[in-house]
Amino acid sequence: MRKFVIMGVQGSGKGTQSELLCADLDLVHISVGDIFRWNVQNHTKLGAQVRRTMTAGELVGDDMVESVVRERLDRHDWNFGFVIDGFPRNGRQAEFFMESYDIDAVIHLELPDEEVRRRVLSRRLCPNCGMDYNLIADRPEVEGRCDICGHELIRRADDTPEALDARLRDYHEKTRPVLDIFGRKEVIHDIDAHPSADEVQQSIRLTLGLPDYKPASA
């Protein structure tokens, strides 16, 4: 069984790399951000709380995050292991996670703030069908419209310059120190997140001693 945590600032590619890692290794991708976004899009009580927090550019409270993570992992549908991203984000969450679960490695995607801003502020979302776009590498065929359903694309509530600045501050002040906590017991692997998604994935696999990554187009 393989159990990994993937960390990195917003826009570093955590979700993409998690999905590529899970694709042919039979791992389950657990994205705390996706869980919260699902609740927002489906107008649940939890979603309403999350929406207010995200719009303010703040991070969801520890109690709520820990509850969501515990509930998700307690399903035990990860027979061959999991990759969790978006958690932990601060010292308390890291201590909770280390006390509750054993993991094999922490993958840390490194990306400077200026590149984060370029990537994040280029992201767009279809509020109707949930498709993600990036105006740098994955532009829609018709500008401003979803290729799937034709709906007008929007920025996520947490992708404004103000919200991003707040998240970067939170990351450097609260999340970076998490690496020191994991360093007590776990092996942390720093991965350069600048190259293409396929190249970053291959670097992760080489570092962790996993089977080579074979892109779908290869």
From TrEMBL:
InterPro entries in UniProt: Adenyl_kin_sub, Adenylat/UMP-CMP_kin, Adenylat_kinase_CS, Adenylate_kinase_lid-dom, P-loop_NTPase
Region (LID): 122-159
GO molecular function annotation: kinase activity
EC primary class: transferase
Region (NMP): 31-60
A Pfam family it matches: ADK
Pathway annotation: Purine metabolism; AMP biosynthesis via salvage pathway; AMP from ADP: step 1/1
The reaction(s) this protein catalyses: AMP + ATP = 2 ADP
Protein known as: Adenylate kinase
Annotated organism of origin: Paractinoplanes pyxinae
